[in-house]
């Protein structure tokens, strides 16, 4: 159901290779693959959330900082200090530390496969949050994809099924 929902969303976008929209879809799929690798590696190594967050933050810094120095073109220094501080807090504290610690805890409680399935909800939750925040309403095919993905995550996590499905 999750894969079908993803295909409905990608197919509804025209499924033409090379468009910016489908490049975004490929980036989402790539990030989902990386999250799956992170989840399995964290579970296999039996790391707690804080330890895994520390490893992820430091290794990301080691990869990102040299790339920023080479390709960043110094635009960060041109940004207003309040904007830079807000982004530093959101990306450095909320995203890099708190979310990874909570995700690590979820993996230890739910297991790798159940926790990883929740990653599929990110695009659906983003689409739903875009309605009140940005006034963007998903297209009809996007709604179908959101429902399929959500149902797939529900089933993967052993949600109770209706009597008519149980047989």
Describe the structure.
With 167 residues, the chain is mostly helical. The protein has helices spanning 2-12, 20-45, 49-71, 81-110, 112-118, 121-134, 140-156, 163-166. Helix 1 packs antiparallel against helix 7 (140-156). The two termini are 19 Å apart.
Nutshell version of this structure?
This protein has 167 residues and is mostly helical.
Report helical residue fraction. over 70%
Helix and strand content put the structural class at mainly alpha
Strand content: under 5%
Largest sheet geometry = none
Overall pLDDT metric: 79
End-to-end gap: 19 Å
Assign an overall shape: globular
Computed CA radius of gyration, to the nearest angstrom: 19 Å
Order of helices and strands: HHHHHHHH
Give me the count of strands. 0
Question: How many structurally independent domains?
Answer: 1
Specify the number of helices.
8
- Extract low-pLDDT stretches: none
Task: Note the topology.
Elements: H1 2-12, H2 20-45, H3 49-71, H4 81-110, H5 112-118, H6 121-134, H7 140-156, H8 163-166
Helix pairs in contact: 1-7, 2-5, 3-4, 4-5, 6-7
List keywords for this structure.
mainly alpha, 8 helices, 79% helix, 0% strand, globular
């Amino acid at each position: 159901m999750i894969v079908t929902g993803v295909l409905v969303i990608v197919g509804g976008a025209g499924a033409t290779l090379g468009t910016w929209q489908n490049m975004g879809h490929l980036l989402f799929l790539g990030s989902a693959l990386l999250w799956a690798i992170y989840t399995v590696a964290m579970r296999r190594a039996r790391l707690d959330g804080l330890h895994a967050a520390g490893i992820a933050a430091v290794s990301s810094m080691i990869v990102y900082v040299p790339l920023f120095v080479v390709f960043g073109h110094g635009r960060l220094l041109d940004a207003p200090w309040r904007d830079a501080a807000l982004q530093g807090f959101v990306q450095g504290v909320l995203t890099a530390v708190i979310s990874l610690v909570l995700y690590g805890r979820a993996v230890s409680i739910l297991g790798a496969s159940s926790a990883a399935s929740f990653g599929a909800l990110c695009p659906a939750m983003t689409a739903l949050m875009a309605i009140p925040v940005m006034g963007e309403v998903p297209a009809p095919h996007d709604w179908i994809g959101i429902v399929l993905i959500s149902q797939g995550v529900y089933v993967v996590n052993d949600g109770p099924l209706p009597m008519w499905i149980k047989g």
